[in-house]
Design a protein that fits this description.
Number of domains: 5
Oligomer: single chain
Keywords: Actin-binding, Repeat
GO molecular function: actin binding
Radius of gyration: 50 Å
Protein name: Calponin-homology (CH) domain-containing protein
Helix content: over 70%
Order of helices and strands: HHHEEHHHHHHHHHHHEEHHHHHEHHHHHH
Number of helices: 25
Low-confidence stretches: 53-78, 241-318, 690-696, 729-734, 759-768
Distance between the termini: 120 Å
CATH class of the largest domain: Mainly Alpha
Largest sheet: 3 strands, antiparallel
Length: about 775
């Protein structure tokens, strides 16, 4: 969409918002609805709060509204009633902007400007924005156009004052500039009461309309805290001089158009972050003067302006000028002319530093604008002198004196004009040479850096952690180089190009293309550097984590191997020693079962690391390392299982033999005691009746032996398991501890019951 269409839509929304406050119907077409002046009067009456006096007259079949601009203190430059009646799009937009600038911008900011003793509203507004968005690294507002097209600046400005409205990360996650802009405008409308003066699709372009952005940001300034520090203003003043000069000039030039300009300086802006090139529509920077326009191709508007100037320089009607008034005007002009000559001579010699030359260039533009504003005074004096000479009422001496004064004035003016233009041309020549030198230096740097990052990217990461650390340090050096080069890029961000109006487009086209290419290359290097840094940091952390984990696991595994090797599993002296050894081995086996997930974790970390490194040598080393762990692990498990099996069998055999011997001895002792008792009873009692002797079955004794062995083996294994780390970790849990105690009691009771039952059974058989 063209800038004019965007301004028309945006300004229409603003006009309707103001009309709505007074209950007036909205305008549908800004250009046609203002033609009769009535809707314009309604707008101004709403803004001022009282009825305005209008002067209506019929001209060319149209009703013209002559606005009392001087009463309203609105500067209307080169905008006449006929322009409004004729529907001149450009001038109507200029008129509405002048009204917005007065009531929407200056009126809102006047208190802050007075407090800071500042007169540049745009600079104050930019300082306020930068002061409140400096905590957001993604936001760097240097103008009121391209700095806003991604939507981040609007969101940051709102979030800095009202962080409770939304989470900043939600804005960062949005990938579309339109979505971010929609988010900001919605929040401002819902919570700050700011009408949707802008549409996201009109802002999400390479070069949003500056006036529309200023209008909306001023609306935010109206409702948000308005504190602006001098540090923020000084920061704006230290931005690249082309940017600050633009801030200063636009406000002035939009209110005082220079109608006789032949040349302009055009700023070509490179958006560094995205490599885009902006080429604002040419804005008048300075004006050439009368008598030199033949050297340039003039537009129709310039020709009309020149004709008007020649008319002003034509002699005045006879009798309208006196010698006294002529002398007074001449003295005033000569006083100013002397001051202007001193000002030109007082300008510093042209520097050889690009930023200083830019400052000198823009300073001199301001000087030439001042010359332009005073050329009408020179013209009036010359006209007055010509009128006096034409009347023929002067004496010969007076006539000669007036002619000499006119020649002197014209000569000094011409000399000043030529000297000023020569300095302007020299400044531009030096500036262009320095800027082209910067472009060449940037091109050379880009060539070297692109080769450098290509080499860095071609080298695989690894083969060890020290190499990753070395790559990180190498990348830090690249980042430092980018920061140093950023100074040159910032300077080129606002190039100043002066062209004549006949060949302006063709002259800047090649430069724009070159800047576009350089901007894209710079942006690509910045993106690669940022992405590479993220990869290096992630790889370094993964590698360090993996290294730490594998060292801990290696140390643990070595410790367990040493412990297994130190346990004696053969030639044990007694059953107690065998049981203690079995318990130790069972505990180690339980430790291995608990540690098993660590092996799986190392394998997962290895795969994650290899996905970042993508180095075959590293993959081979990691695979060999993990294979070594796996082999040691399996070997340790096999040794433990074999030792536990052997010791369990030995313990069972020893306990069975000992218990069998004990039971046999007990049975023998009981039998002997019973026999002795029977003898005593025989002696003391009548002869007993004959009883049948019951012989213990050998199969029954064998079954007892088998049952006893199984019970003892189960008891041994149960005690080992209950002493394992899996149970020890949870001993603080009362329920687990109770279960542990109950199981132990049951095992002991079961064994005792079996033993006692067997002994009792054997005893009964012997008694029988």
């Amino acid at each position: 969409m063209e800038i004019e269409d965007v301004q028309k839509k945006t300004f229409t929304k603003w006009v309707n918002s103001q009309l709505a406050k007074t209950g007036k119907p909205p305008v549908e077409d800004l250009f046609s609805d203002l033609c009769d002046g009535r809707r314009l009067l309604e707008l101004l009456e709403g803004l001022t709060g009282h009825e305005l006096t209008t002067f209506l007259k019929l001209w060319k079949s149209f009703v013209i509204c002559v606005l009392p601009a001087s009463h309203l203190q609105v500067e209307l430059v080169n905008i006449g009633a006929a322009d409004i009646v004729d529907g001149n799009h450009k001038l109507i937009l200029g008129l509405i902007w002048s009204i917005i600038l007065h009531w929407q911008v200056k009126d809102v900011m006047k208190d802050v400007m007075e407090g800071l003793q500042q007169t540049n509203s745009e600079k104050i507004l930019l300082s306020w924005v930068r002061q409140n968005t400096r905590q957001y690294p993604q936001v760097n507002v240097v103008n009121f156009s391209s700095s806003w097209n991604d939507g981040l600046a609007f969101n940051a400005l709102i979030h800095s004052h009202r962080p409770e409205l939304f989470d900043w990360s939600s804005v960062e996650k949005k990938t579309s500039a339109v979505d971010r802009l929609e988010h900001a405008f919605s929040k401002a409308e819902q919570h700050l009461g700011i009408e949707r003066l802008l549409d996201p699709e009109d802002v999400a372009v390479a070069h949003p309309d500056k006036k529309s952005i200023i209008m909306y940001v001023t609306s935010l300034f109206r409702v948000l805290p308005q504190s602006v520090s001098m540090e923020a203003i000084q920061e704006v003043e230290t931005l690249p001089q082309a940017a600050t000069a633009n801030i200063t000039r636009v406000t002035t030039e939009e209110h005082y158009q220079i109608q006789t300009k032949q040349r302009f300086s055009e700023q070509i802006t490179v958006n560094v972050a995205q490599g885009r090139v902006q080429s604002p529509s040419p804005q008048p920077r300075y004006k050439s003067y009368a008598y030199t326009q033949a050297a340039y191709v003039q537009s129709p508007e310039q020709k009309r302006s020149q004709e008007e100037l020649q008319q002003r320089l034509s002699p005045l009607p006879a009798g309208t000028t006196s010698l006294e008034s002529y002398q007074a005007a001449l003295e005033e002009v000569l006083t100013w002319l002397l001051s202007a000559e001193d000002g030109l001579q007082g300008q510093a010699p042209i520097s050889n530093h690009v930023e200083e030359v830019k400052e000198q260039f823009h300073t001199h533009e301001g000087y030439m604008v001042e010359l332009t504003t005073h050329q009408s005074s020179v013209g009036r004096v010359l006209r007055a002198g010509a009128a006096l000479l034409g009347e023929g009422n002067l004496s010969e001496e007076e006539d000669s004196e007036v002619r000499e004064q006119m020649n002197l004035l014209n000569s000094r003016w011409e000399h000043l004009r030529v000297a000023s233009m020569e300095r302007q041309s020299r400044l531009h020549e030096v500036l262009m040479d320095l800027q082209h030198e910067q472009l060449q230096q940037l091109t050379d740097w880009l060539d070297v850096t692109e080769a450098r990052i290509k080499k860095m990217g071609a080298q695989a990461l690894g083969p060890d952690l020290e190499d990753i650390k070395r790559r990180v340090e190498e990348h830090k050096l690249l980042q430092e180089d980018l920061e140093l080069e950023q100074v040159r890029v910032n300077s080129l961000t606002h190039m100043v190009v002066v062209v004549d109006e006949n060949s302006g487009d063709s002259t800047t086209a090649a430069l724009e293309n070159k800047l576009q290419v350089l901007g894209d290359r710079w942006a690509a290097i910045c993106r690669w550097t940022e992405e590479r840094w993220i990869v290096l940091q992630e790889t370094l952390l993964k590698w360090q984590h993996f290294t730490n984990e594998q060292c801990l696991f290696d140390s643990w595994l070595t410790q367990k191997e040493d412990m297994v090797g130190s346990i004696k599993t053969t030639n044990l002296k007694d059953q107690t020693e065998m049981v203690a050894c079995l318990h130790h081995l069972t505990t180690l086996k339980a430790d291995l079962d608990v540690k098993r997930p660590t092996m799986d974790k190392l394998c997962s970390m290895s795969q994650d690391l290899l996905s970042s490194v993508k180095n075959r040598e590293v993959a081979s080393k990691l695979e060999a390392r993990l294979d070594s762990f796996a082999q040691r692990w399996e070997q340790l498990v096999q040794i433990l299982e074999m030792s536990i099996t052997q010791l369990s069998a030995a313990v069972s055999a020893a306990q069975h033999s000992e218990l069998t011997h004990s039971v046999t001895a007990t049975v023998t002792k009981v039998t002997t005691r019973e026999k002795m008792s029977a003898v005593r009873q025989t002696r003391e009692s009548p002869p007993p009746q004959k009883k049948r002797q019951v012989v213990v079955d050998s199969e029954l004794r064998k079954r007892f032996d088998v049952d006893f062995t199984e019970v003892h083996s189960y008891m041994t294994r149960g005690e080992a398991i209950l002493q394992s780390p899996e149970f020890s970790v949870t001993r603080k849990d009362s329920s687990i501890q109770e279960l542990h105690d109950k199981v132990q009691v049951k095992i002991v009771c079961l064994c005792l019951m079996c033993i006692c039952g067997s002994v009792s059974f054997i005893y009964d058989l012997n008694v029988q």
